[in-house]
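User: Can you write out an input/output pair for a complex, sequences first and structure second?

Assistant: Here is one pair. Inputs:
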Amino acid sequence: MLRHEKVILVIEDEQYLNDLICAELADDGYRPIPAYSGQQGLKLAGEVSPDLILLDIGLPDVDGIHVSREVNNDELLKNIPIIFVTSKCDLQTKLASFISGAKRYITKPFDSKYLLEQVRFLVDHKPESRLFE
Amino acid sequence: MRIKPARINIRYLVAFGAGAMIICFIVLSLSLVLMTKKLQSMNNRILIDSRALELGHRLVIEIIKEQSRSLSSQVTKKKHKSTINLMEADKLVGEISRISVLPENRNVLNDVENQYEIYKAIKIAENHQSVTGTIYTADNLLKAVENYRNLERKQLDRTIASSDKLDSLIDRWSMILIISMALVLAAGSLAVLNRIMRPTYALMRSTEKIGQGDFFVRVPVYHDDEIGMLCNAFNDMADGICRLENERMNFIAVIAHDLRNPLSVITLAARRIKRKIPASGDEALWLERIIEKSEYIDNLIGNLMETLHLESGSFKLQIEEFELLSLIRDIVKVQSELVKNYRFSIVGDSECVMQGDTHRLKRVFENLLSNAVKYSPENTTVTVSVEKKDADVSIKIKDEGAGIESDEIKDIFQPFTRLPRTEKMAPGTGLGLFSAKLIVEAHDGKLNLFGNCDGSGTTAEIILPLTQSMSHG
């Protein structure tokens, strides 16, 4: 089952949603690690060095854009692809997320099939160059 | 915000203007009255002088008549009987001395009276026996009367001359009165126009605009007066409305946003269950309904967010050039695959390259096409016609469905409004036409609906300019 054996860090404060995303990822052969706040996510990212991060924007402590920026400023972590999974759909937030280093932007509610396709693409392929250097 | 009291009060301005007008009027009127009185007394003087001249003239005639009678009685040796003629002369002299009141005439008049008394005394003494004595006195009397008449004539000429002068002065004053009143009135009207009418019209126009939903309009404050205070109060109110509107939009945006998290859980969980447990019968149906309704709520939230975004006026059109007919053909193709039991026809074969936000205009066409299908019975035709008109293009989407009454058209463009008559025919959020109108208007275009309920269906007409100004980009 664990054919990919890739680690995905899921930073999402809504516990049920986090559980569901983790379950879908696990079903697809990934090893999901849940985090429920920005700080916890950053700490876990440093510890486990995941293959991909799924990131919400509205988090209880720091916002997702900040987390993404921190990850991209870290020499060891900056190659980890980030997918934003958020309910914010305005242009400014989208732009800010891409500038902070995100590779994909998925708005809630989403289809798990689509999410897994994007995860698979980013994890299996070589890292794309950043949109904004 | 507390309104700052006005520095200049219109009340005082009006009172000042009215006061100035009244004072001006009183002064000019009084001087006119005085001058008229003076003119009147001059007229009296002229009358008296004329009368004195006439009396003098009659007296001369009487004396000459008397002398002539004396002469004729001398010649005929007949005794002159009557003294009535002298009585007439008495009356004339008496009247002359009564009406002559001017002191400077007194001396000459006294001379006339003395000469007359001498003449009378000699006349009575001679009693028509001789005319030699009276000839001399009569001459003296006539000279005195002539002197008097000359004086009166000069007096009369002088009075007439000054009366003429006064008359022309009154004419001038009247003219000045009329012109100054007209000037004061004109200046007053201009001041009123400037102070009251201009800001009032500006206020009226702004109120109309706010009524039409343009909350960003503000009134210019022309003067620091009561109307200025009103304009300031109006602007504060408009600020307040803007604040409330922002809060309302933020509130809806926050709620919509917060709904999306639990909705994601519901949709994901339902889909997962559907995939994991092969449900059958009722359970499968209910699960399908959960997914369907979750998608409907998601769609509603999406529409709501988009509408708020459009309504806030903060969005920018992504203008690009496109070929209208091929865009419509693509949309119609997708639509005809979705609904099989309707016929679609596209009229208009010439190419029509235009500018616009393709993504948003596509949504408008999709919305109108889906409305045409939703509210029409099966096996009917939906016709899309494209026609170029000078600098505009008109796109008509005509169906053969339920139609629309003219009094329903105004309501149907309101957000969350659906017609009770057709509500049951298809699901909807009541936001589609509202958003479509906002998008079309953002392109400087117009969206109109025509039709009636006699079975001829509804026609939606979109008029768009072929090119967009750079401000949209």
